[in-house]
Amino acid sequence: MLQVKFRREMSPAAPFSRTPPAPLIVQPVAAFSDNYIWLIHSPREPRKVAVVDPGEARPVLQEIERTGLTLAAILLTHHHPDHIGGVPELKRGSDIPVIGPDDERITVNTRIARDAEGVELPELGLAFETLAIPGHTLSHIAFWGHGSLFCGDTLFSGGCGRIFEGTAKQMTASLERLRCLPTETRVYCGHEYTAANLRFAMAVDPDNTACARYQAEVHDKRARGVPTLPTTLALEIQVNPFLRCEQPAIRAAAERHAGRALTDNAEVFGVLRAWKDQFR
Length: 280
Ligand code: ZN
Ligand code: FE
Description:
The protein is α/β, with parallel strands linked by helices. It has a single domain (5-278), classed as Ribonuclease Z/Hydroxyacylglutathione hydrolase-like (Metallo-beta-lactamase, Chain A), CATH 3.60.15. It has ten helices and 14 strands. It has a six-stranded mixed beta sheet with strand order 1-2-3-4-5-6. Strands 7-8-9-10-13-14 form a six-stranded mixed beta sheet. It starts with a helix and ends with a helix. Bound molecules: zinc ion and fe (iii) ion. Fe (iii) ion binds next to helix 3. Fe (iii) ion (FE) binds at residues 80, 82-83, 153, 190-191.
């Protein structure tokens, strides 16, 4: 398995090289008050980019104009306006592909990405796997590839999205699916919510030293105006209470909050999510 994988990625100049390919260059573009639109630089065409979840067009247009980039594809994780609002203006008569979930509320996509299907953008040298991750919305998807995960509003650093359409059980399964990806996966989330999420994480899990350390780091980054993303799954597994529902300390905290015994991870998750919704 491993051999085949590296064979494909070998550079002809170094046939015995076992160096994995360089990570994608992914650049944040800030939008609204706390959204991130992600610009994925093509590993093949240095001036071409794909954009993920352009809720507004203006900051993307400014950035591609400033840097002389060309927008070559648009990827969408879910139908919320703060993730798709900029599509019509960015597309404006061009035939660039707009790839997103199968949802009649999204009328701007030209290609539907279905669960476990590949999304290939050969002109950009990019290929992703689509993962259906219902919960925040029912048709929410993530794009995974090149060691990177674009997960919209499902997984955040230190937290997760609100359950607007799905159930706690669905969201638990979706997060579990993401948690099973390789731990070194870089996670590009839709919002800069990390600091607020960690305040809640520390209330649930006060003895988590990894979380305390991370909180200090995040505080420092935000003070300097630096994005806290991408995060990694390895880190999230240590600090994010919503990925840690099976941990005795998390379950005990959720049971104390609920005032009753909880029987499974989805129930623990449901209590945490409702608790976070009220948490200030
Ligand atoms: Zn959303
Ligand atoms: Fe959002």
